[in-house]
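hiii so my PI (J.) wants the whole complex modelled not just the main chain, which honestly fair. so below is everything: two entries, each one labled with what it is. i double checked the lines twice but i was tired so who knows lol
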Amino acid sequence: MEDLRDARETWSLANCTIAHALDILGNRSAMLILREAFLGTRRFEDFVDRVGAGEPAMAARLKALVQAELLERVPYREPGQRTRHEYHLTQKGRELQPVITALRVWGDTWTTDEAGPPVVAVHRGCGAPVRAALRCEHDHEVQDGEIAIIAGPGLIRIA
Amino acid sequence: MEDLRDARETWSLANCTIAHALDILGNRSAMLILREAFLGTRRFEDFVDRVGAGEPAMAARLKALVQAELLERVPYREPGQRTRHEYHLTQKGRELQPVITALRVWGDTWTTDEAGPPVVAVHRGCGAPVRAALRCEHDHEVQDGEIAIIAGPGLIRIA
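here's the output for the full assembly
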């Protein structure tokens, strides 16, 4: 099977989709806001408290995530107060669950202190811990070294 | 089953392992260097060309990834030249494969331009595309909404 890694100098990743994803996700506080959104946090002041950012920075970051369509603003009003907005994950945001899960599992393995990880994500059905596993679309488990990199429709060849 | 999300205000993520992971990975160029390492890039000048960073920035970034033990420096010497160093993924670095894969799949789905993604990672055994799937340790497929967040050994309760 062809593997593009054998001739890395002959193609470009100018249109890399990982780079595109990182244009949105490539900073620490954006990912921590998404972590909180997956944990059910929805209100501005709770994001400020739980992510540990200042209010102006948080406002800018939430606005960017709304513009990128990972979060949507949903109005709410408590009795006697003005209308405010909560931040809910969109479908585009929810599909980051494997990214967040993969980061957490790696962090649990390689960065945890001696007390161990603070939380465990488990499968409701059976109670077993959840991870982001490499699987192919034929549902085979994929081991390190069993992946080939082949040309996609958008490949830019340069030599 | 208990779910900590029902009382998010009663526990802290001061020791969050996602945050620890992002201390190392939470910038765009660190992740793009790791992408290149997975694609087989090993030499300083190739990282500069393929990640699109300046030489001083790349030197600092590679040094940080070596200190974090994601890459290791391996000496090599071409005939008639002085000894130089390549950068190889360590086991700690290789275990980021699910993170990179999850980012790529999300980017392919949500950020690709009309030409389509540049590359496809496929399973050598069967040729099917590879993704990072949510699975539990009992090897069940885990759907959105089937995850519970429970206390780990390091949980810090605050109320």
